[in-house]
Q: What sequence folds into this?
């Protein structure tokens, strides 16, 4: 692996190229550098290379890192959300990516109301219908979008997904298309706009951008490989 600055430059160039292919403005894509499992020193290196937006998936790990770094950075919470951590997550993070049920959305709405602000969130969709993954089933989201929109301390930015694993980046395309089409459907159902799509990781972010991603969550290609043990835990 090259240095973090070099990696970032390459990812940014590839984002620009994917945007050009898709006829999109490079500024229409937010690169979230996923720093979970990596130390403050690595994040500081990315900051030096101009990166301001980071993603973490466990509160316990993220909190001391956030506190140690400049307050000007933006933090996105991309992991599973435990109810007892919602207040702290809202205080430390600007955006939550994995709101996966009406019940959790209602709970976050209540805490955001107590804190006196609107929580910026993505609704996670289990786009591949996998038993092992969280997220709204598409049909449930169609049914519940009205109730979700009525939660007035939530600002629903759009939809987020982690597609089923496939042999290559191209195999993720159909899932990204499905998420975009589902977004269009729930806009029509609700009469609201959900302009953002959080989709695409190290293996498939270029395809995701071609299919409309506004937020790509890239870890490995920037910071290197993670040890398996610490992944996928609830935050
Ligand atoms: C870890 C993680 C990522 C980053 O994955 P990479 O393959 O390392 O780019 C993106 N999204 C979520 C939700 C994650 O948990």
A:
């Amino acid at each position: 692996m090259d240095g973090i600055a070099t990696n970032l430059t390459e990812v940014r160039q590839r984002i620009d190229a994917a945007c050009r292919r898709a006829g999109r403005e490079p500024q229409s894509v937010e690169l979230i550098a996923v720093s979970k499992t990596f130390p403050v020193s690595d994040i500081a290196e990315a900051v030096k290379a101009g990166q301001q937006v980071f993603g973490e998936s466990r509160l316990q790990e993220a909190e001391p890192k956030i506190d140690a770094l400049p307050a000007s950075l933006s933090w996105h919470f991309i992991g599973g959300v435990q109810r007892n951590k919602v207040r702290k997550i809202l205080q430390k993070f600007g955006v939550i990516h994995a709101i996966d049920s009406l019940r959790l959305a209602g709970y976050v709405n209540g805490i955001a109301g107590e804190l006196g602000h609107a929580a910026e969130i993505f609704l996670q969709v289990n786009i591949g219908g996998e038993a092992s993954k969280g997220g709204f089933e598409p049909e449930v989201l169609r049914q519940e979008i009205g109730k979700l929109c009525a939660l007035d301390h939530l600002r629903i930015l759009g939809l987020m997904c982690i597609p089923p694993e496939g042999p290559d980046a191209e195999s993720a395309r159909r899932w990204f298309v499905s998420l975009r089409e589902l977004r269009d459907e729930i806009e029509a159902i609700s009469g609201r706009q959900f302009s953002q799509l959080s989709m695409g990781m190290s293996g498939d972010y270029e395809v995701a951008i071609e299919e409309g991603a506004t937020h790509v969550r890239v870890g490995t290609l920037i910071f290197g490989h993670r040890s398996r043990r610490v992944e996928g835990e609830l935050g």
Remarks:
- Residues 34, 36, 57, 78, 162, 201-203, 217-220 surround pyridoxal-5'-phosphate (CB under 6 Å).
